[in-house]
């Protein structure tokens, strides 16, 4: 697909990886609808990007909220052909913690609901809208890009909920690509390493520095535009499908 003809919905588009992706697509001539819970930030990002961007306040776990956001996108821009799922949350809790206290089930359910169910909720509705598109080159109608994490493969102590959800995102990539192949819709996943996002910025240096040390090269946090560049490549490379790509500077996380 030509990025200049891209109309994308981006969850978590008001900050971090999602914001960088919105900026990259607009810079290349595409249009974006930012889906985020933070209306003030979403409005500001959309305003900064200009007439090729808009925003919708959206809860990715709520079907009606996402349906309204998809409709707002097609009403505003005429169609939809790219969905990038960046919305997500982290957690830090052991399966059994101090004084033999079990992991809070409510926390586990919350992380699953946002990271895994939320991603699927958005992509299923976006794909249904894409299926209505006229077929382009190679009979292509759309692309879904999900965001997993290296924690899907190298989950650390206390990451059981987060790792479970990101492993689920990786695990559903190929089945979704197979489901949507007859419709001309691709599905790929990016598994980022440690990126300089608001979520990571909130962590203390004693958490960040060991992760940077585990990164092979370059020895730093990832830059969100590097994630966005990979999304743009996935848009343009129509033969990339059903794939999960680690974008992590060679990190292999240790237990702690």
Summarize the main sheet: 7 strands, parallel
CATH class: Alpha Beta
Average pLDDT reading: 96
Please compute the radius of gyration using only Cα atoms: 18 Å
Structural class: alpha/beta
Note the total helix count. Answer: 9
* Ends apart, CA distance between termini: 41 Å
Helix percentage range = 40-55%
Order of helices and strands: EHEHEHEHEHHEHHHE
The overall number of domains is 1
Indicate the low-confidence ranges by residue numbers: none
CATH fold naming: Rossmann fold
Work out the strand percent: 5-15%
**CATH 2nd-level architecture:** 3-Layer(aba) Sandwich
Can you tell me the CATH superfamily? NAD(P)-binding Rossmann-like Domain
Total strands: the figure is 7
Which descriptor suits the 3D outline?
A: globular
- Enumerate the strands of the largest sheet in spatial order, edge to edge or round the barrel: 3-2-1-4-5-6-7
Structure description:
The model has no long low-confidence stretch (mean pLDDT 96). The chain has helices at residues 16-27, 39-49, 63-77, 105-130, 151-154, 160-180, 198-201, 205-214, 224-236, and strands spanning 7-11, 31-36, 53-57, 82-85, 142-147, 185-192, 244-247. It has a single domain (3-247), classed as Rossmann fold. It has 256 residues and is α/β, with parallel strands linked by helices.
Give a brief rundown of this model.
This protein has 256 residues and is α/β, with parallel strands linked by helices. The chain has helices at 16-27, 39-49, 63-77, 105-130, 151-154, 160-180, 198-201, 205-214, 224-236; strands spanning 7-11, 31-36, 53-57, 82-85, 142-147, 185-192, 244-247.
């Amino acid at each position: 697909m030509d990025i200049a003809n891209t109309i994308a919905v981006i969850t978590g588009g008001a900050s971090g990886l999602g914001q960088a992706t919105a900026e990259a697509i607009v810079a290349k001539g595409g249009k974006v609808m930012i889906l985020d819970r933070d209306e003030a930030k979403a409005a500001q990002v959309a305003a900064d990007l200009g007439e090729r961007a808009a925003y919708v306040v959206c809860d990715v776990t709520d079907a009606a909220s996402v349906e309204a956001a998809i409709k707002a996108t097609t009403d505003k821009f005429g169609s939809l052909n790219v969905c990038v799922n960046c919305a997500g949350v982290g957690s830090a809790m052991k399966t059994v913690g101090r004084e033999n206290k079990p992991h809070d089930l409510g926390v586990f359910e919350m992380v699953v609901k946002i990271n895994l169910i939320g991603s699927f909720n958005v992509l299923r509705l976006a794909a249904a809208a894409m299926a209505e598109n006229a077929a382009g080159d190679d009979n292509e109608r759309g692309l879904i890009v999900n965001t997993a994490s290296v924690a899907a493969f190298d989950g650390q102590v206390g990451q059981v909920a987060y790792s479970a959800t990101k492993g689920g995102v990786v695990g559903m990539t190929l089945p979704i690509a197979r489901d949507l192949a007859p419709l001309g819709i691709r599905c790929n996943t990016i598994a980022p390493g440690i990126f300089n996002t608001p979520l990571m910025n909130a962590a203390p240096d004693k958490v960040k520095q060991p992760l940077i040390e585990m990164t092979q090269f370059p020895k730093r946090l990832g830059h969100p535009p590097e994630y966005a560049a990979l999304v743009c490549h996935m848009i343009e490379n129509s033969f990339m499908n059903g794939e999960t790509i680690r974008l992590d500077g060679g990190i292999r996380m240790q237990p702690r």
